[in-house]
Amino acid sequence: GNEVFASGGGRAVLLCAMAEGGGYRCVECSREAAELYRDYRHGVLRIAVCKSCQKPVDKYIEYDPVIILINAILCKAQAYRHILFNTKINFHGKLCIFCLLCEAYLRWLQLQDSSQSTDPDDLIRYAKEWDFYRMFGIASLEQTSFLVGIFIALWWRRPKMLKTKSDFILLLKALLLSSYGKLLLIPAVIWEHDYTPLCLVFIKVFVLISNSQAIRVTLNLNRMFPWLAIFFGLILENGVVCLVQKMGWDV
């Protein structure tokens, strides 16, 4: 049935999957659950069954992390629920900073490519870090405006969904974690010129799809409304880009 025999590393993976203080969700129907599994000792664990859908509350607690990652890349709602509600993942802030650094460095490279010169004075300016810091600031501003646009749209159309601070924090965490697709910028940073604009477009689309799934899973919405919120976020982000360009800054 739903019994799992775990020992050593497998047992550690299961225990690490447990979040502190309850608040679990069924990965199938998103209903609240009191527990994910029951420990009968001697390495025998029994996965809890959801009282609503009669399916295992969280089948992923016995899966290898690689399998969970693959399911998340495939944007499966069950994998997202497992990560957001039933685990203790708290590196969303560090992940956001790392993605912004990669994006800033990629923009910095493109800026230097468009202004190459053999003048020694220009080479000295090229070595300065100001342009990189400026690109990081612009990328951070764009990301912030995108997130603000999403929250404004959600609060405007469905104000009851973000009525508490915990709801706001959970959705913010979901959006930051679902932006993991930006890590695909790393190959572009490593290989520098061996990428195409089309590749960057695909990365952007993948991140938006992941963001949409994160909103849908976190707030238990249909497929259309998250895309409307993302569209509003993109409008606000592009507005910031136009404003920055009017100031004479390259983006």
Automatic annotation (TrEMBL):
The keyword Zinc does not apply. Belongs to the ARV1 family. Its main location: endoplasmic reticulum. One of its GO terms (cellular component) is endoplasmic reticulum membrane. It is a multi-pass membrane protein. Signal peptide: none annotated. Keywords: Endoplasmic reticulum, Lipid metabolism, Lipid transport, Membrane, Transmembrane, Transmembrane helix, Transport. It is found in: Endoplasmic reticulum membrane. The chain crosses the membrane at residues 132-156, 168-189, 227-249. GO terms for biological process: intracellular sterol transport; regulation of plasma membrane sterol distribution; sphingolipid metabolic process; sterol metabolic process. Pfam families: Arv1 (PF04161). Mediator of sterol homeostasis involved in sterol uptake, trafficking and distribution into membranes. This is Protein ARV.
